[in-house]
Specification:
The chain has one domain: Farnesyl Diphosphate Synthase (Orthogonal Bundle), CATH 1.10.600. 70% of the residues lie in helices and 0% in strands. The chain has 13 helices and no strands. The termini are far apart.
Length: 311
Amino acid sequence: MAISEAVRETDAINGGAPVGRWGVYFSATRAYSFPASVASVLLGAALAYRGYGGEARFDIVMLLLTLAGAILAHAAGNIFNDYFDYVKGIDTKPEHGSGVLPSELLTVSEMRNFGTACLCGAALFGGIALLRAPFALNVIVPLGILGAACAIFYTSFLKKIALGDVTIMTAFGMGLTLGSYGVQTSVTNAPQVGLILWLALPVTLLVDAILHANNIRDAANDTAFGYRTVASLLGNESSRNLQRILIFGPIALISLLVSMRWLPLSALAVLLSVPLLIRAYKSGDVPMTAQAHLLFGLLYALGVAVMARPI
């Protein structure tokens, strides 16, 4: 999208006047994609609150720290994605990525420094969380390293060998859900981790749906510059079939988990997101897919939180 929806709206309000400096930096983060992080963090906290796999615990301060750290890490990933694509000559038009580099709204060094600052901010919030909850050391440190590595190496290396989807699903789906859960209550055994990762699968699939929608749109450009994404390898028709699974599979999974009494009946609140999911699939629009993911994630987390875990 050209710079971002936020910038275009600001331009319209200002009658086409240049966007302010803060607006440019905000646009560089591609904030429309942040629901991918927010939904996973809220789900992890809800699972801890209801005692899935461990002691039922909830700390609102830890939730806020986790949200802040996750959003900053996500922003860093988006910024470095744009940075590497631009310096490699892939993003050359304003509609590529956030558009701030091709439009010369920020310099390459400013973009790199901004991404580094966001990563440092995420690390700071992680450190504060660790001071508040030392028991979470075994979760915060490895997942923090994983998140930083994904932010830096996603475009520079992993995307080239068709590992982008796996990376995003691991970091923003399962990783953030487990991390948010693990700063609320102790993670002590493999079955506990397995349960949380299994319950994170619905939001994980929708996280990848956001990326896959982007990669379907950019398949020709990615192929031209030597990037191998799942979308570019599958072709348009097969990619659309996969997108159908990524978008509607989570509904089927939640229904299955409720029928198995792994989740309460209230988790079926995710059915309210079906109309938006359908619109996202039909349009193929990346921001709309992110909005559908956010609605689904909010309903899922709320459904888990409002009703006791089935026995």
